[in-house]
């Protein structure tokens, strides 16, 4: 396959397509006029400058322009006219593929006059669909500030592209759903995030949704929008820290998504240890388009409705304006609407983990079932099946507005601005609050009134289920300017990003009010007659507010630098200044830890300045060897500066085979979201008294010669956290023997050190001595949890991406694509002296794959997609399969596969229709982990077979 080079606009870039066909055509005039300022010099550089200034893409084989020069160009012309002038005398012609894509090829030699009439030439075959823009996948290469201008060499780091066509064919309605199903990514569902670590915490808090790469969690994956950071979700997640809420970015304005796998801190700084997800928004559009979508499950529930409108306007002197609005509404889906969702796993040969409400004896056996009549089962028992109450899909409503404006100024400058406004409202539900209540003998609701004290396992049905409603407002504003001085581009941009969240929670129980109302008998258990004002006092609404802001200034420059024997080097450098601020104001009852079984919250109002300088160099070290070097120096207020280097090499062993590899280090200082206290499992703790604990203030004897300390359980914020660091390596190859087939296989190895983990003195009394809490007399009174830099994680695995394309004259175009991720090693060490345990394949699959078969015939396009997950083991790698699972033969969860179908019709000039059927086989989730209630929220889709009908009208 001939190697191909292409020039690109600053917003254009990396191409997955292959060489163009040999049809000869002249470039037609384009309606947009641009003022060009292209100096004389090599034709290769002139073509790049033309593409950059006019925002078009030009594809060509490198040997076509080798040694050719250009006299330069100045004036106001259309891109096609400018290209035609640059190519005069070069022996090259330009063939137009569409409005903004051209392919160069050698001009046909002059034909000598024949002695007799020449036969009529056969018409050239139509161009293959594989060269059309829908399959080129042109993007700016994520992972570098140097714009790419050569297609012959693939990106140094493994990268996945999700094009606009892929988004449409997927049938997904949200960015979160689209990303969570990508190989190697884990979904952090809003239900899971809101649960704050799960049981026994019953406080739903916040409702963000995000994903992460390679099992390193959200702290290791950096999300960008158009190459820029955005503000995190305004509320703190105690377990996950700061989150990028993907629900705030509507899919209707997303042009493509680029996922770079492997460390990229040398390019983008903190949070890029596992990789980067760059979400590219639309920048322009011809005309207007209205799209309506309606989704519904096979069971007539979980409905989704979306309408989006977008209009593009051409402005004077080559400017353009894009305006877009989007409205999305989603119905709630609860566990009671799916039969497989239950805590009763006896059908799998396991245990029934439903909570049996009623009176308990001293040894916690049930004496008598006790609950309202309508909550009893057919046998008269009172099981509380928490899984039936919990949301599987939140009720949601989202509104957004997006605008992008670009205007050239003079011959070599432009300014631009973008504004994105969003509002996301979500409501989640959990089971009614439940707890064990100690009833004294004189209480009228005691099992033996006037007799022995009893314990009542009780659910506050009269208060209602725990419900949280969050409303998040987003502002993203970017202003920028670019100017060209010769072959160099200079840029400056400023951005303001803000996420403001209000969270209201109902159904929690105030401890202080409970003790008072129960003590005065104003609240009676299971009476059904408690007054409304009593219930309002018992369960007051909790309101928390949070706001995260990010203001940033970026200055950058890039262009050609010096010549090497093998070619010209290119360099990029820049300065980034930013200020993070975080305000979290929890409800006063949360701060006072007054809500039962809910983690305490801490008020935060802080800000921090950051500065970074980066430099990158792309150098042809030899005829077939390309080196890429990056260096970034970060300094965050309160922490020392850190330098993160990256080295990348690409070797074109053959015209069809490229080997690539990277070596990089990473650095991530604790964010404002991480200066927090961890969740704790309860309010009290019993520890055997020995030399480790020392004397305790409160003790009790449990058996002869054995005394236990009765300690208070709490937590504190550690303000002495240090930065996390990482080292990452990738090694792989890309093989493309012809224009129809390509295969990429890469190995990755990421090691993260100084991980921030929760610790206390029970883990290591000597290492975490500050966890002990003593009174004024030196007696031990409590144990505090806190976060410390003690962990390490070593992740290793493989990525594969393969594609085969076939164009036929009779049956249309076929395309087959396969991408997959295999986690070979996931070794965690939770303390320096702790054992290193390999969690690969435990409580989550170690392999995922996504395959798609597309058939385009005439005006129809059909896509069949399959997502496959490998099996997963239950338990821990340092323990045998738990006995209860081993006895039932349920030590591992089976692998799974789901198939989706998308059918699209574009036969009308204005209309486009599509039907997507998700999960054709209506797969029932299977997960034997009893605590998960029948499915894995990180990987499974609880809706089952789902239909999505879309209609678009362009005018």
**H/I helix tally:** 13
Total beta-strand segments:
51
Amount of beta strand: over 45%
Shape by Cα distribution: globular
Largest sheet: 22 strands, antiparallel, barrel
Ranges where pLDDT stays below 50 over 5 or more residues in a row are 1-31, 110-141
Q: Measured on Cα atoms, how large is the radius of gyration?
A: 31 Å
- Kindly report how far apart the N and C termini lie: 40 Å
On the 0 to 100 scale, the average pLDDT is 86
* Secondary-structure-derived class: mainly beta
How would you describe what is shown here?
- The protein has 955 residues and is mostly beta strands.
- It is 8% helix and 48% strand.
- It has 13 helices and 51 strands.
- The strands form ten sheets. It has a 22-stranded antiparallel β-barrel. Strands 1-4-8-7 form a four-stranded mixed β-sheet.
- Helix 1 packs antiparallel against helix 3.
- The two termini are 40 Å apart.
- The N terminus is likely disordered.
């Amino acid at each position: 396959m001939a190697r191909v080079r292409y020039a690109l606009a600053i917003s254009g870039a990396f191409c997955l397509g292959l060489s163009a066909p040999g049809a000869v055509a002249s470039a037609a005039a384009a309606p947009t006029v641009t003022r060009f300022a292209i100096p004389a010099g090599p034709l290769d550089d002139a073509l790049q400058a033309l593409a950059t200034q006019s925002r078009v893409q030009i594809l060509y084989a490198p040997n076509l322009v080798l040694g050719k020069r250009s006299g330069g160009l100045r004036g106001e012309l259309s891109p096609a006219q400018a290209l035609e002038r640059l190519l005069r005398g070069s022996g090259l012609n330009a063939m137009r593929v569409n409005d903004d894509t051209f392919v160069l090829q050698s001009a046909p030699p002059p034909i000598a006059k024949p002695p007799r009439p020449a036969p009529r030439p056969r018409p050239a075959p139509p161009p293959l669909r594989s060269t059309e823009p829908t399959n080129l996948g042109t993007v700016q290469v994520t992972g570098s500030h140097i714009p790419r201008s050569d297609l012959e060499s693939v990106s140094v780091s493994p990268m996945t592209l999700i094009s606009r066509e892929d988004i449409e064919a997927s049938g997904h309605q949200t960015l979160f759903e689209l990303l969570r199903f990508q190989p190697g990514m884990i979904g952090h569902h809003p239900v899971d995030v809101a649960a704050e670590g799960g049981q026994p915490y019953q406080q739903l808090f916040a409702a963000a949704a995000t994903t992460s790469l390679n099992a390193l969690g959200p702290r290791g994956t950096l999300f960008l929008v158009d190459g820029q950071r955005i503000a995190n979700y305004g509320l703190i997640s105690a377990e996950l820290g700061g989150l990028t809420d993907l629900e705030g970015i509507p899919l209707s304005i997303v042009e493509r998504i680029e996922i770079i796998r492997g460390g990229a801190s040398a390019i983008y700084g903190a949070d890029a240890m596992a990789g980067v997800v760059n979400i590219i928004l639309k920048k322009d559009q011809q005309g207007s388009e209205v799209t309506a979508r309606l989704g519904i499950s096979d069971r007539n529930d979980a409905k989704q409705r979306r309408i989006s409108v977008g209009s593009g306007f051409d402005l004077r002197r080559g400017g353009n304006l894009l305006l877009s609005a989007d409205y999305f509404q989603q119905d709630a889906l609860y566990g009671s609407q799916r039969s497989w969702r239950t805590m009763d796993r006896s059908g799998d040969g396991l245990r029934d983990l439903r909570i049996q409400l009623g009176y308990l004896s001293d040894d916690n056996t049930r004496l008598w079932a006790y609950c309202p009549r309508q909550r009893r089962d057919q046998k008269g028992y009172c099981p509380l099946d928490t899984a039936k109450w919990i949301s599987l899909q939140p009720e949601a409503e989202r509104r957004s507005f997006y605008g992008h404006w670009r205007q050239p100024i003079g011959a070599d400058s432009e300014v631009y601005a973008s504004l994105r406004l969003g509002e996301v409202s979500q409501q989640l539900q959990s089971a009614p609050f439940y707890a064990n209540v100690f009833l004294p003998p004189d209480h009228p609701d005691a099992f033996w009134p006037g007799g022995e004290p009893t314990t009542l396992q009780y659910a506050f049905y009269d208060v209602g289920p725990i419900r949280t409603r969050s409303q998040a407002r987003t502002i993203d504003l970017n202003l920028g300017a670019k100017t060209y001085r010769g072959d160099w581009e200079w840029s400056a941009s400023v951005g303001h990003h803000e996420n403001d969240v209000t969270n209201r929670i109902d159904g929690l129980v105030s401890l202080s009010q409970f003790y008072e109302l129960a003590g005065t008998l104003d609240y009676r258990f299971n009476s059904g007659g408690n007054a409304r004002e009593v219930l309002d006092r018992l369960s007051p609404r909790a309101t928390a507010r949070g706001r995260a802001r990010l203001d940033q200034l970026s200055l950058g420059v890039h262009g050609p630098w010096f010549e090497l024997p093998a070619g010209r080097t290119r360099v990029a450098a820049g300065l980034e200044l930013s200020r993070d601020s975080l305000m979290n104001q929890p409800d006063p009852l949360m701060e006072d830890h007054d809500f039962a079984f809910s983690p305490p919250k801490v008020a935060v109002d802080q800000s921090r300045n950051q500065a970074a300088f980066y430099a990158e160099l792309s150098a042809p070290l030899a005829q077939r060897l390309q080196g890429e070097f990056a260096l970034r120096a970060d300094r965050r207020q309160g922490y020392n500066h850190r330098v993160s280097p990256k080295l990348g090499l690409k070797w074109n062993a053959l015209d069809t085979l490229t080997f690539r590899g990277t070596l990089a280090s990473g650095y991530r200082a604790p964010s404002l979201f991480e200066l927090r206290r961890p969740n704790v499992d309860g309010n009290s703790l019993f520890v055997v008294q020995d030399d480790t604990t020392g004397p305790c203030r409160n003790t009790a004897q449990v058996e002869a010669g054995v005394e236990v300390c009765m300690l208070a359980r709490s937590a504190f914020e550690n303000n002495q956290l240090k930065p996390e660091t990482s080292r990452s390596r990738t090694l792989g190859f890309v093989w493309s023997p012809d224009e129809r087939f390509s295969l990429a296989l890469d190995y990755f190895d990421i090691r993260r050190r100084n991980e921030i983990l929760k610790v206390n003195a029970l883990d290591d009394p000597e290492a975490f001595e500050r966890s002990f809490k003593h009174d004024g007399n030196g007696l031990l009174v409590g144990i505090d949890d806190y976060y410390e830099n003690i962990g390490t994680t070593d992740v290793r695995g493989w990525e594969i991406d393969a594609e085969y394309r076939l164009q036929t004259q009779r049956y249309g175009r076929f395309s087959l694509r396969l991408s997959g991720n295999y986690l070979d090693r996931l070794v965690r060490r939770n303390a320096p002296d702790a054992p290193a345990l390999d969690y690969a394949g435990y409580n989550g699959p170690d392999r995922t794959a996504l395959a798609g078969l597309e058939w385009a015939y005439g005006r129809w396009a059909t896509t069949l997609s399959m997502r496959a997950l490998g099996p997963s083991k239950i338990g821990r790698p340092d323990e045998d399969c738990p006995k209860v699972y081993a006895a039932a033969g349920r030590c591992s969860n089976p692998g799974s596969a789901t198939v989706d179908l998308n059918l699209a019709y574009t036969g009308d000039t204005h209309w486009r229709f599509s039907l997507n059927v998700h999960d054709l086989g209506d797969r029932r989730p299977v997960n034997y982990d009893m605590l998960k209630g029948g499915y894995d929220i990180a990987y499974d889709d609880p809706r089952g077979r789902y239909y999505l009908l879309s209609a678009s009208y362009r005018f």
